[in-house]
Input
Amino acid sequence: MTLTGYNTVDLKEMLEELGEEKTKKILLTFSCPYNEDVEYFLHHKAIEFSKQQLSNTFLVVCSHKGLTAFIGYFTIADKVISLTGKHNFSNRLRSRISKFATYHSELKAYLVSAPLIGQLGKNYSNNFNTLISGDELLQIACDKIREAQRILGGKIVYLECEDTIHLKNFYERNGFYEFGKRLIEDDELNKGKYLIKMIKYLI
Output
């Protein structure tokens, strides 16, 4: 079911229409005190990643008191993930995933091309976070991926999150399953930590 009342704005289109300076000012209005990485990415990396086509960033907006409110954002990037027999999926999910996977005999793993939801966060400035729930924001991100997959094919999406009960429960409630961990090596702020990898089959 597609949510109504919310719209997404492609950061690339914002840059083309408004220019980099005005776009930066809008991005700097985003505040997420509960996840500094999400805030830092939007303030310092999103524009460059968009220019280099490393990921696509989408701002989520809605009408509030006669104005357009910037209430959250998410990023999507195209990745390839590796799945082995050790992953504890149900037979049904394993069968579904295998339809979109290629088996690599040397790695003894299935390789799946899948969109990564790289960032996901609500904007706490001006209490805009109260205008959307985390479940709704995640659904909007998944709906955007469904749009792309209707053209390109595929049914799989995955994400990475911190290993906390709160986050794992949130994503599991929304149909994601844990399938591995990734050690962080490319981020000086979090180097040495690891993230939980979670996957979902989009119906």
Remarks:
- The longest strand covers residues 67-83.
- Helices lie at 11-18, 20-27, 36-44, 46-51, 91-98, 134-152, 165-173.
